[in-house]
Amino acid sequence: MRDVEQATTLPEAVLEPILEREPAVPRITWYDDATGARIELSATTLANWAAKTANLIRDEFGLTPGARVAVLLPAHWQTAAVLLGCWWAGTEVVLQPDPDAELVFAAAARLGETEHAPEVAALSLDPMGAPVRDLPLGVTDYATAVRVHGDQFRPGGAGAALDGMPVAEVLTEARKSAARQGLSETDRVLSTGSWDTAEELIDRYLAVLVAGASLVQVADPDPAQRDHRIETERVTRVL
């Protein structure tokens, strides 16, 4: 396994230790209380989706390390894979519309914010990853396009990782956040928060991965379900 301190991309730093230790253990469990949907991804499955996304970015969209990618997506299991895929491809993630972005990953409801982007990949955010229907001409359907790409990826370098921060700085901030929140690899972490800013993304997603913990992410949370979910998912920490 690559020494984490020698890693050039975030997935190398945060995924490889988890894959080495517990590849089949649930890493992200995603709920939508509005629909009753529940999706669970092991470290291996998350890594496969991320690798497919990185291959899509490099081979289909032609982006190279250092390119800028806007991610206009909510906290979701597909977003988790898209983010890791962007970082594996060495691209910089920004979490808002950006005129310098060479590619935008956007929820179908936010396509109106992407009209000037050179390339757009739309996500339905369907629990099972169904495609988006009736897309405008020139917009790529993520679910359809990503499936044909390989589930292994060899990184070719990296530029900035998140809103101008290099990989090392993002990792440092994630480790500080994990320590501040008292997260460890034995934790099962429940979160209902958003990933709309760099700070939120680090505190509620990357810090969990860096600690080696697993995440239970809930969309449209129903307060009546909270205690039952903590019990059934064996939650040890609530963000």
Please tell me about this protein's structure:
The chain is α/β, with parallel strands linked by helices and 239 residues long. It has a single domain (10-238), classed as ANL, N-terminal domain (Rossmann fold), CATH 3.40.50. The protein has 7 helices and 12 strands. The protein has helices at residues 10-21, 43-60, 77-88, 142-146, 167-181, 198-211, 226-232; strands at residues 26-32, 37-42, 68-72, 92-94, 103-107, 120-123, 140-141, 160-162, 165-166, 188-191, 214-219, 237-238. Strand 10 (188-191), helix 6 and strand 11 form a beta-alpha-beta unit. The longest helix has 18 residues, at 43-60. It is globular. It comes from Nocardia speluncae. This is TIGR03089 family protein.
* Strand tally: 12
The span between the termini is 31 Å
Structural class: alpha/beta
The backbone outline, from C-alpha atoms, is globular
| CATH class descriptor name | Alpha Beta
Q: Assign the CATH superfamily.
A: ANL, N-terminal domain
Helix content: 25-40%
Overall tally of structural domains: 1
The fraction of residues assigned to DSSP E strands is 15-25%
Return the average pLDDT rounded to an integer.
Answer: 94
User: The biggest beta sheet, please?
Assistant: 5 strands, mixed
List the strand order in the largest sheet: 2-1-11-10-12
Radius of gyration: 17 Å
| SSE pattern | HEEHEHEEEEHEEHEHEHE
CATH topology, by name, is Rossmann fold
Count of alpha/pi helices: 7
Which CATH architecture is right? 3-Layer(aba) Sandwich
